Structure prediction request, 432 residues.
Amino acid sequence: MNNNINSKNSIKWLLRLLVVFFLLPVATIFGQNKNSAGKNNGAFYTGKYRNLFAEAGYSKDDIDKKIEKAYYDVFEGPNHVYFDVDDTTAYVSDVKNKDARTEGLSYGMMIAVQLNKKAVFDKIWRWSKKYLQHQDGPREGYFAWSINPKTMKQNSPGSASDGELYFITGLLFASNRWGNTTGINYYAEARKILDAMWKKDGTGNIYNLINTAHKQITFVPEGDGYNWTDPSYHLPAFMEIWALYAKDGHEQFYKDCADTSRAFLHRACNPVTGLNNDYAEFSGAPHPTPWMPPAFRYDSWRVPMNIAMDYGWFGKDKAWQEDYAKRFQQLLRSKGMDEYDDQFNTDGTKPDFILQAGPVKKLRHSIGLVSTAATASLVNKEKNSVDFVHAIWNAKLAPYADGYFDPYFDGLMYLFSLMHLSGKYQVIQPIK
Prediction:
């Protein structure tokens, strides 16, 4: 009798515990500060950013020269993708596709603020604001995602949500680094985008950049694109930055979005290979599109870098992220460290459909993926993970044997990777 009562009480206690667990918000599971999920040693809290190149044996002088050379190649060299227009404006171009995109423009701004190149940052922002930001109508505050920089004709008035994501974060960092009284009020510009975002209610078929019901970034903030996502747009670290520095009254929402993205990536990444599809439902399931079937392709290259950033800066999902990085690098290693392709089915097999890059339709051992794969070494604790660090150190941002060259996407991923691996990609906190 007593045993049965004890057994029933134990079952009731267990059921209550399970109910409490499943009703907890995602944010509570991951923790929103350095004490709520145990000791947090993310660099935001410690101020210590790992330099994997130094750990791998490269000298400070050689590391600095490597970064300087990469910056020169991408922004100033013979195959540069950064173009000065006049003394006050400039743009970044996807040269193979002959356009300028909010993706590349905002990446250029992020590189500039991280490397303390204020003039470059300001020029790109002024050009982007002048030619791409909508000043009225349902899209007010948002940006046309693509423009022909020769004719100045927008290729599309619609937005790609990752562009605004990077613009906002870059502007908040610029405000923290340079203040708001040196010619551009960076904070006001960031708030202009954010405040406009929160006014989007579907009027004119234009919505918030973030699906407010699912707390996930949208593929595009209009039409049906509001109802699905791109895993490479999931940057929980940037959502944490908005919660810290936007100060627009939506702090808890942004924190929740950060943790929702972490949980989403668990579902979107294959449990064996770590690979994800380029596009996904909010559930993490693949989202097919009329232009291509699901697979791990160019957009997806950014996912390991985004996870490494979140791991290094905030460290709120370390156990899963460490396992992810191990699985992801093991998959690439199994294909050959100097041979793995740049597109896969999520089970690691070769896809039937090959997404064309510019005029070329061919699988390659692309420096863009070599770059972002190396950032996973910031997360993978296995000793042989350093092989990926050496691989990107020895890689050359140069044309392939057949003449194909992408200084834009490959080049930007390469430079981002070097910055991460040298500890030069950081949370820029306000001047004290």
